[in-house]
């Protein structure tokens, strides 16, 4: 999937947004200057100035062909970063995996994509492997439905036209408190997801159970919705407790 400038967050601080556009474009694929301008839609002089500046701060580097690639400072910063949602999820996912015997994941939305920030697999049997860091579309799957059901109206309007589900489905998901899907994102895979709330009660992630349709059926919510909602609540309590 190519870098999508339309889905990138905007802070309103021009030079910061342009710099992040350069970093995200290079993270998507190595870029020479022409490719960087095409990916970011920035003027050539601006793209070059920002890329050189980011290279000076080691946020970008060059490959053997002279193209910009992510720099070592990004890895150094990410190594020291902590995400409270991920930390709380990793304390809760093992029990959910053991209860269901299936793959479990936590996703957060970034623009028009959802990112897997935590995942655990059963010890044996067929798995629905979604590696941490995987970026999946927001137009299909139970986790996408959950994240969009509690997203702001402008985000829903932007993403619903390309989705396999509509506004009515989101209304039902908010009423019921969870979502399920079968064969939407990947053929033969079903999943059920519930919203994860932070200390303020805002939905910040979706927790999911997924596996082969042949084993978990086309309506996995009937089996695991209650366990999934309980796991989401356990994460919420951890995020709400004082540290």
From TrEMBL:
Keywords: DNA-binding, Transcription, Transcription regulation. Pfam families: HTH_IclR, IclR_C. One of its GO terms (biological process) is negative regulation of DNA-templated transcription. Residues 73-241 form the IclR-ED domain. Residues 13-72 form the HTH iclR-type domain. This is IclR family transcriptional regulator. PROSITE patterns: HTH_ICLR (PS51077), ICLR_ED (PS51078). GO terms for molecular function: DNA binding; DNA-binding transcription factor activity. Gene3D superfamilies: 3.30.450.40, Winged helix-like DNA-binding domain superfamily/Winged helix DNA-binding domain. The lineage of its organism: Bacteria, Bacillati, Actinomycetota, Actinomycetes, Mycobacteriales. InterPro entries: GAF-like_dom_sf, HTH_MetabolicPath_Reg, Tscrpt_reg_IclR_C, Tscrpt_reg_IclR_N, WH-like_DNA-bd_sf, WH_DNA-bd_sf.
């Amino acid at each position: 999937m190519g870098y999508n400038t339309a889905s990138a967050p905007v802070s309103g601080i021009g030079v910061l947004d342009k710099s992040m556009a350069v970093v995200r474009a290079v993270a998507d694929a190595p870029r020479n200057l022409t490719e960087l301008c095409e990916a970011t839609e920035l003027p050539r002089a601006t793209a070059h100035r920002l890329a050189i500046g980011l290279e000076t701060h080691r946020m970008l580097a060059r490959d053997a062909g002279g193209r910009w690639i992510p720099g070592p400072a990004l890895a150094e910063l990410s190594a020291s970063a902590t995400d409270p949602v991920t930390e709380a999820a990793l304390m809760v996912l093992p029990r959910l995996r053991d209860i269901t015997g299936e793959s479990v994941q936590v996703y957060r939305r970034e623009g028009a994509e959802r990112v897997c920030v935590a995942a655990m697999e059963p010890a044996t049997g067929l798995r629905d492997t979604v590696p941490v860091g995987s970026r999946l579309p927001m137009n299909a799957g139970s986790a996408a439905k959950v994240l969009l059901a509690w997203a702001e109206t402008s985000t829903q309007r932007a993403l619903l036209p390309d989705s396999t589900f509509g506004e009515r489905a989101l209304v039902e998901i908010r009423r019921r408190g969870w979502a399920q899907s079968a064969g939407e994102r990947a053929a033969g895979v079903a999943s059920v997801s519930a919203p994860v709330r932070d200390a303020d009660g805002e939905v910040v992630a979706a927790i999911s159970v997924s596996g082969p349709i042949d084993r978990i059926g086309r309506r996995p919510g009937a089996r695991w919705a209650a366990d999934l909602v309980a796991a989401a609540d356990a994460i919420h309590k951890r995020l709400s407790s004082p540290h």
